[in-house]
Amino acid sequence: DVKVTQSSRYLVKRTGEKVFLECVQDMDHENMFWYRQDPGLGLRLIYFSYDVKMKEKGDIPEGYSVSREKKERFSLILESASTNQTSMYLCASSLWPGGGETEAFFGQGTRLTVV
Amino acid sequence: KNEVEQSPQNLTAQEGEFITINCSYSVGISALHWLQQHPGGGIVSLFMLSSGKKKHGRLIATINIQEKHSSLHITASHPRDSAVYICAVRRTGTASKLTFGTGTRLQVTL
Known about the structure:
The structure holds two protein chains of two kinds. Chain A contains no helices and eleven strands. By secondary structure, chain A is mostly beta strands. Chain B has no helices and eleven strands. In chain B, strands 2, 4, 5, 9, 10 and 11 form a six-stranded mixed β-sheet that branches. Chain B has a five-stranded antiparallel β-sheet with strand order 1-3-8-7-6, with no helix packed on it. Chain B is globular.
């Protein structure tokens, strides 16, 4: 079974703190994604990476950065956490398409509260 | 207007009922996903389809590419089916990126 594991289920941080959310996948997938999920808005893409050290901005990258030093690990960084970054964060991974259908696999989510 | 619209937003059903959740999209796609999210947050992929129909147990997913519409059906619903069901599309030319609907919250009661 593919496993996408996020380092924390629940996290409470203070405004201004630097926050690291970690995601690890064990299926050698090229693509990894970070989303945030807010009521009424659905999942929105923050950043994605299609290879080690490669990254692309998603729809809402402001206030976030990412790091992918190893293929299996994709980190989301909140440089200076703010209360409007309180949300559910979901990591996902998938194979590079290569022309076929590619399934996405999701982590269990990290509920981040910034106080 | 969202590129992916789901209906209904909320749905309550009694155990045993046949359930339909709809997804309409306004962009060209290469694939459509149906996802399930249980309380607590984790998301599971139910189906990925680009044409026709797929069935897994009591779940059936259909897609009509010409009408840009997909449906997820649950037969003989059960309280353990209670979850949020999310439709997501892979837009043509966007490689692996998905665009999501806002989800349908299903509650199945005894």
